[in-house]
Design brief:
By secondary structure, the chain is α/β, with parallel strands linked by helices. It has a single domain, classed as 3-Layer(aba) Sandwich (Rossmann fold), CATH 3.40.50. Helix content is about 30%, strand content about 30%. The protein has a seven-stranded mixed beta sheet. A hairpin with a 2-residue loop joins strand 2 (about 10-15) and strand 3.
Length: about 240
């Protein structure tokens, strides 16, 4: 299925399906996270006590490079690795979505995320999983074996974030993540057709809503990313 690049009201969109947006970039603020679910995938940034975290990030699935641009701009000490199965997505991200050039800080690998996770021996502070085919299926990227491999590749205290897509009457099922991470999982309230799930290893953390609001305000002041609406939708503290 061919990739579609569309623009409307100052926003450029990446689409495989005319009815399904897979990525977006506001032309006046190219580093900002335009889609709600991409913002919510940044909730782990509120949880550590140190602003130096994360120092190593793996993205499985590139899309319109929104998260890559954001992290590249605001976390200059972080090493970013991206695995994307479709070379056309990468080419379009460079041509239309201002994906930064590869450097010592950013590496793009064309390949299957499942196979990459099965063979790499590197460890990451943060793993972000957002990979779907043209039909909206995550395939092997939403299985217990894959999530167990993600867990094994997390550094001490590391976190994994997964975007789960629900279409029509199909509700997202976080059970494969829960099994792989011994139920150390928080599913954020659904956001349109997306549900963001956070999983963690290492020392437990507990963040009260007041602490989360304070951290969200600091992150907003530093990066412009506003996670306060997300915190307002939470019913209780985050425990991982």
């Amino acid at each position: 299925m061919p990739i579609r690049i569309n623009e409307e009201r100052g926003v450029r969109y990446l689409q495989f399906d005319p009815h399904w947006i897979q990525g977006a970039m506001r032309l006046s603020r190219t580093w900002a996270l335009e889609l709600d679910y991409t913002r919510e995938m940044m909730v782990p940034l509120l949880l550590p006590r140190s602003q130096e975290w994360p120092r190593s990030v793996l993205q499985v699935g590139l899309g319109a490079a929104s998260i890559t641009r954001f992290l590249h701009r605001y976390f200059p000490k972080a090493k970013l690795d991206v695995v994307e199965i479709d070379p056309e997505v990468v080419l379009n991200a460079w041509q239309f979505f201002e994906l930064p050039e590869e450097s010592a800080r950013l590496h793009i690998e064309i390949g299957d995320g499942y196979k990459y996770m099965a063979t790499t021996r590197r460890r990451f502070d943060l793993i972000l999983v957002d990979g779907f085919d043209a039909h909206g299926s995550a395939g092997r990227l939403h299985t217990s074996p894959f999530y167990r491999m993600c867990r094994a590749r997390l550094a001490g205290g590391g976190m994994m974030v997964t975007n789960m897509l629900s279409r029509a009457r199909n509700k997202p099922n976080a059970d494969p993540i829960r099994k792989a991470f011994d139920d150390r999982v928080v599913a954020l309230p659904p956001c349109d057709a997306n549900t963001v799930v956070i999983a963690k290893i290492g020392a437990p953390i507990r963040r009260a809503l007041d602490d989360l609001r304070s951290a969200a305000q600091k992150l907003k002041s530093r990066t412009g990313l506003n996670l306060l609406p997300t915190i307002a939708r939470l019913r209780s503290e985050i425990v991982l």
